[in-house]
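Subject: design request, 363 residues
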């Protein structure tokens, strides 16, 4: 291939697939590289590949080498790859950790003065005692200290709500571990160009962990079913993604049970019907109007997350079809593009329907 970044990304993607991970090609902006076949449609309908064409983001993800080569052939501008979360055999959960003021000299910040680094086992960069770095909340320089960064939609936003306001995802995760008494396991850890870290954890089958941004704690984003993580060996606009020194390569550790409980929202109550009508003393319609106000009050960087959350709540109560147009209008008032607002509400409808099914239907 003429593009060395493309060949490099494809090689790493095929390696990930050989270990059972589903992958898609990504652009330098960490977005799915294959353009949607519906981008010219006046009002694109939600499609997850049923049309038979490529270009459906994470829904294109595959571990089949032939399918992966076809995806990269359709996106010769790709410089990285994404690893889809939630699928067997690992049911991958991504913990995306941001930090504003990372300690200078940490692994992944070459050229900055600060903490001395020495070669650890196999020549890997590690701590001053010669041991390779690993995420460990109980070790000085582990989860208590750290850096600042993000990945793609997974994890790819930037701005005041995402790692630029002094949030410290590494310290926040360590604090959660202490408060809820769970260990932070030694697991696959990817360093991002801006100094953040992605921790890979293996989840249980039959449980869909939702994506979230800052819900667990400021500076911590979660990637579950429907999300993806930028894979090691990818190139982004600000640099490369690589395994942390001493990190396991392709073997994510099981998610601790206490952390999994934090990642999984409680089951919603049975759906209630909502029919527009004359005012009543039932607070339910007022609560639904509050969802519209909640979306309309969104700031840039929050709009997708708040719209998704509000739409999920509406569909869980059975009022989704009636309330969806008002939620979309509220999102448009905040500046969210129409196609993005519609896609977010459609995704919320699918998510709510899935969570309302019994667990045996999730397999």
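Subject: RE: design request

Done. Sequence follows.
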């Amino acid at each position: 291939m003429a593009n060395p970044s493309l060949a490099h990304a494809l090689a790493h993607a095929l390696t990930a697939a050989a270990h059972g991970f589903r992958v898609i090609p990504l652009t330098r902006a960490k977005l799915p590289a294959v353009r949607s076949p519906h981008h010219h449609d006046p009002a694109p309908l939600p499609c997850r590949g049923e049309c038979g064409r490529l270009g459906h983001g994470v829904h294109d993800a595959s571990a089949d080498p032939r399918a992966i080569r076809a995806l990269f052939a359709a996106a010769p501008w790709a410089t990285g790859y994404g690893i889809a979360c939630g699928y067997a055999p690992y049911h991958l959960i991504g913990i995306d950790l941001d930090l504003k003021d990372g300690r200078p000299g940490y692994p992944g910040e070459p050229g900055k003065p600060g903490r001395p680094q020495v070669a650890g086992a196999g020549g890997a960069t590690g701590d001053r005692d010669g041991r390779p770095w690993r995420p460990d909340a109980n070790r000085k320089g582990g989860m208590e200290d750290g850096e600042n960064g993000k990945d793609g939609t997974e994890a790819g936003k930037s701005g005041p709500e995402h790692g630029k306001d002094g949030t410290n995802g590494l310290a926040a995760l360590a604090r959660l571990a202490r408060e809820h008494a769970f260990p932070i396991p030694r697991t696959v850890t990817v360093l991002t160009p801006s100094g953040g870290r992605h921790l890979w954890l293996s989840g249980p089958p039959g449980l869909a962990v939702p994506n979230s941004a800052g819900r667990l704690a400021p500076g911590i984003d979660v990637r579950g079913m429907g999300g993806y993580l930028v894979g090691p060996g990818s190139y982004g606009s600000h640099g490369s993604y690589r395994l942390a020194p001493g990190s396991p390569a392709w073997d994510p550790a099981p998610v601790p049970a206490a952390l999994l409980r934090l990642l999984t929202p409680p089951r919603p109550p049975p759906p209630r019907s909502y029919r527009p009508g004359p005012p009543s003393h039932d607070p339910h319609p007022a609560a639904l109007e509050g969802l519209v106000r909640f979306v309309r009050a969104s700031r840039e960087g929050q709009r997708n997350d708040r719209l998704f959350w509000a739409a999920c709540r509406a569909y869980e109560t059975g009022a989704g079809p009636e309330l969806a147009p008002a939620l979309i209008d509220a999102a448009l008032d905040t500046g969210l593009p129409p196609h993005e607002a519609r896609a977010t509400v459609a995704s919320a409808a699918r998510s709510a329907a899935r969570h309302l099914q019994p667990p045996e239907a999730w397999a």
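Residues 102-164, 273-284, 356-363 have pLDDT under 50 and may be disordered.
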